[in-house]
Write a structure and sequence with these properties.
The protein has 68 residues and is mainly α. It is built from 5 helices and no strands. The radius of gyration is 13 Å and the shape is globular.
Amino acid sequence: MQLVLRHYLRLRVAASVIYDTVYPGPEWAPVSFEQAERLETVHYRQAVAAALLVRPVLADRAEQLRLI
């Protein structure tokens, strides 16, 4: 999965935001996003999966305009 994010900075940032929001501290995830990324932990993989799922919604300009 790390290969996917290496080339997509926005997707990596989205995964990082999701990770930090869903796992706000050490009681939820034992390592930082960067460490989780390097180790490809389950928490990291879940955050990446969420970022991949939301990507089409965020990229849909018609949807963005409708929400404004």
